[in-house]
Specification:
Layout lengths: L1 H11 L7 E3 L8 H13 L4 E6 L5 E10 L5 H14 L4 E5 L3 E6 L18 E6 L4 H8 L4 H6 L1 H5 L10 H23 L4 H23 L24 H4 L3 H15 L8 H6 L2 H12 L4 H4 L14 H9 L18 H11 L11 E3 L6 H17 L7 H11 E5 L2 H16 L4 H6 L11 E3 L14 E6 L9 H10 L8 H12 E12 H6 L3 H13 E8 L4 H4 L7 E8 L8 E4 L20 E4 L9 H7 L2 H13 L3 H7 L3 E4 L8 E2 L8 E2 L21 E2 L14 E5 L9 E4 L4 E2 L3 E5 L2 H11 L2 H10 L12 H5 L8 H16 L5 H10 L4 H20 L11 H19 L4 E7 L5 E9 L7 E3 L2 H14 L7 H4 L2 E5 L2 E7 L7 H19 L1
Parallel strand pairs: 3-4, 7-8, 7-10, 8-9, 10-11, 12-14, 18-22, 24-26
Antiparallel strand pairs: 1-2, 2-3, 4-5, 5-6, 11-13, 12-13, 14-15, 16-23, 17-19, 20-21, 20-23, 24-25, 25-28, 27-28
Helix pairs in contact: 7-8, 7-12, 8-18, 14-18, 15-16, 16-18, 28-31, 29-33, 31-32, 34-37
Length: 990
Amino acid sequence: MSELLNGIFECLDINSGTGLATEDNLQSMTSFQRLFYTQVHEKIGIDAVYFLRDVNGIAKVPLIYFSVIQKYDAKQVAELHRLSWNLGEAPLLFVVTPDEILIYNNYETPQVIENGNLDPTAGIIETLSLTDGLVSQQLALKKYHRSLLESGEYWRQSMTRFNAQNRVDATLISNLRIMRRTLINQISKRCDKSKEIITGVVHALLSRSIFIKYLEERKDSNGETVFPQDFYCNFMESAKWYTDVLNSKEATYNLFLTLKDKFNGDTLQVSEIETEIITQDDLDELRTFILGNSELESRQLTLWPLYSFDIIPIQLISSIYELFFHLSDEEDEKGTYYTPLHLVNLVMDEVYPWEGEYKDISFFDPSCGSGIFLVEAYRRLVCRWMSQNAVQAITCDRLNLLLKNSIFGVDINEEAIRVASFSLSLAMCDFLDPRSIWDKLSFPSLLGKNLISSDFFDEDKSFNKERYDVIVGNPPWQSNITEKTKEYLKKVNRVIGDKQIAQAFSIKCSELCKQNGIICLLMPSKGLLFNRSDKSRMYRANLFSDNNVLAIINLSVYRKFLFDHASGPAAAIIYTPKREELKQPIIYCTPKPIYTIEDTRKFSIDPTDICRIPHDIIDDDRIWKIAMWGAPRDLELIGKMQSTFAPMASFIEENHMTTAEGFKRGNRKHQCYDFTGLPLIEAKSFKPYYVSSDELPIVDFHDFECVVKNAREIFAAPHLIIKQSHKNGTFLSEVLDYDAVFNHSLLGIHGEIEQLKYLSVIIGSRVFSYYHILTNRKWLVERDELEAGDIWQTPIPKPNDAELTEACNIFDKLVNSPKENYLLEQFARNMYRLKEYECYQIDDVIDYVYDYFKNKNRSVSFFRPSIDNYKLYYASLKGILTRTFGTGMGFSGDLYFGNAPLSVLVLNVEHSTTKDLNVITNNDQLNEILLNLDRSLVDNQQMVFVRRNLRIYQREKIFIVKPAQRKYWTYSAACRDADEIFEDISKAWR
């Protein structure tokens, strides 16, 4: 049977070097691989796990479980799928029998059929025969080849198959939310206690129940659970399960008391108010939930019996519980914020990766919530200790010691602190066998010692006296601060922007960190990087001067993948307290989603997403947005525009124009009849360039909040009306020769009609959109509109009379023929004195960057390149390199492309330059060259398909390997690659 499995591995081109974990390579695995593989092997019976590696070759993300069974058994196969779904990690399960491979989707919910058994067809993707010969087997498995999995092409091709809403985390969140809401509402109807008290009681009951279910379902190799035989009979005659004990309140709370005495610690404490509030009806409701008999919420809770709490990752349970502390009554209905596991892993990898030497170390989370970061820190700490001490098992005493000496947290929410203790207790259990949990484990008391309920800015609390090695967490994002926070900021003489309390956390964390320690916080990216108020700028300046900022990971583009709703874009900042001046640049990384199921569990980081920001330009507000979407040459072009041309505000002032936003109805407290009967311009039906007054509605209302008393001229002809939101990346405006009014979503400028038409032409150009894509603090970060101040700051060329006349002629033509905007584009580019290559840059940003942001997975960025795309890239690359190195060095090119996810351009370094690109469209040759390059990498890492976008230098040849997607084969990509090739070769010559 092992030969059969090895044959499958060979067909998939996977082995221990490319991320495969089996019993045979246990000792060579990374710590994370070993922990994960051991747990799934023991808990589920998985024989092998294939992991996706990161760009450093470290196995990180489980992709496929392999399980070998002696013969097909419907019950066994369905159970394997159920358990794999509960684990919530690898999306694929290969069940291998002597005759076939059954391939399952682990993101598809298991189903129960009429006889009460699991449906063995639920989640099945396909069944492949193993009796048709090796060639047929290879063809059948081709779609799961390592090259397609590592490059992400498999997930793109299978986009509709995998639905994150059916994963265990999504369904468990939904189920817990329903249970929580139902119990709170049921208790509230009969109890006069506050909502806060009732909510705390319900959370405690649910936490305790999950812990008991974990103990009940955790089994050893002999099928024995944590509890001794007939344990539940001690509380109720003939009781076999927790749900049996729930039939009696007395028995239930006797069970709780016994477990509290057994395990000590904080996890199983029962308050007097809980025993007073909870009735048998509540326990009956809880029992119904757990058994899956509830008719509520369209029978959604029938899923409950499908959960296995010994299989569901401990850190996932902790992460899900975090959402309870952010739920308002409204949010309870529609999903809310919690910290996803892959975001936790991203943060932890920056400060405490799985691999490394074990040392006594202290972790501190200043806003620990349910303890998700502390749980992950603890798991890694334990694994490092086990690896360094070369042990396969760890004692209860050692687990206790590591926890008490190393894990610390604060949260203003007392209930959150209790759940953090619960989460850490569960994490301890996961390192122990069932018998040790019952016979030897006693939980440490953490509340008030390691875990403190307090305002982080309360200077009198004991945690202020300590200094910590690693500070990590996700501080609150509200724009309001406590009195303690105000006092602290005054004491340290620091300011924060927009009352962002997360910024105050970042200041104090630096104070609590050891001099050789490290901090990583998740923060709102707008305040950290993009807001430009005086206080925001001062906060940033102090942050960079008071600390050594090592890296910033801007996660803004992932906003909708990370949080359900209502949360702004995020960024992770990694820094240390300042000891000495560091000269190395700040690593700035902006991962971009690839819009497949992968985005819900990992961050896609391309080499083009990473840049190094020199310290001498970090005070330049533009840099964070330009580096987010553009390249160094874009910084040059934006700088050229700003230094060459004055802002529009100066043009407006010089020409004595009047500007303002339109009226605001808002609270409608003021009566004004001045606008009655005037034409009304509305944003939703805005027509560019010109609209006849006959086509417009008439003002028939007179209630306003603001009527623009000091700038009424904006409503008088001639006037330019600008729509602040764009349409397909273009900003619209119109010039009217009659009086008309409009609301505050539109801007008005009153002035000379020729100058207004000129401004309209500039505003409608790609140059205008390009500038704001790369400089605006909101567009392509969070919102799709410009503020008035952004528009007034746009650099505008000052036209002479001839240029003004030309602009008016173009405008008049566009009124009648709006599609002839090539005239507008040509005029705008001439006005800005753009060179040909700068025009290419602008078009690439609009055609690829904006299109990617707007159309997501349907963007042309992901289309396969045409021959013309490749030829433009090659000609641009060759031209730049030839000009850079001089005529003494020539280049010719061979392009290999086909059905593979990657294309290869071989740049031959010669003494003369061959004009045309040699194109080879042969799949076999392409695959052969890719596999040869894969094997030729340093240390035999086989990383071509993982890195995807890389260059390999050989004697007189440069191999450029990139995904077969258009965004990688543009003019701008050629510029970036040429600059980097020059840098690489220059370094080699030194």
